[in-house]
Hints:
Alpha-Beta Plaits, alpha+beta, 2 domains, 29% helix, 9 helices
Amino acid sequence: MDTTPNQAAAGDTPARHLPGHIAAALAGAGGPTDSAGRPWEGRSLAGDDSKIHNFENDDGTADAGYLAAVAALVQGSGDEAAVVASLATSRVFIPIIAQLGAEVAGVDGLTADKQADMALVMLKAADGRTAMPAFTSAQALASWHPDARPVAVYAARAALSAVSEQAELMVLDPGSDVTLVVRRPALWALAQQQQWVPSYADPALAAEMTAAAAGFPAVRSISLRPGSGITAVTGTGAQLAGGGAGPELQVVLYLADGLDAPAVQELVSGLQQEWSRNVLFGERVDSLEIKLRRASH
């Protein structure tokens, strides 16, 4: 996956002038009202009733539960389901970059923003799908893109934002030693605050796919296993059994003898069409690979 942000960071300029909108705001500061015209008098910004957000005491480090789940994955004693489960209560940072839309002449000859937008940074996966980057620590985000503004949100809220932006993947800590991908079914489950079960370990899904395969007499049985695409690689080259971009599901078809190549191709195509019409399959499978085996007698 290309983990370079879509928006390139602006280079430093020799003369460090204030942006027009900041200069204009400073020129007009000190008045009796805020920018919306509401008086400052009688208002307090202190106390428990006026918290700016839910993370005021946040030190910017990664969530301990997430770190423990990742450590178990690295050691081989954990799995990616536990990593996603740890995100249910974790805070992450989403990178936001300011984009100037237009400037207008302001007071005292200064320029001010006519339109300025805060844009989410998105990535492109190798298969062309959109992915949202999320960082478990402020340091990881700053190392990846120093000019991005870190916005602290719960991971479930970040997943919901990713879905609303039509992103099918969320990439955790791109550019760091351990970069993990949360694929679409896990992303949707996280956004809905539901437990995620990987497709290769889902008994309900296995039952649905087996039932669909029963309509094809040449298929003696099927088996669901982790796909080759679940593997993630750390910065040191170690392989992790989870966090890859997919395909995450491997379906092994045990077939009867006597099928030629065209018959096998027609069979696999028919099975894929049958599975694609299944609602549960559509919700819980991100991508799959099919392996063919001869049924034992």
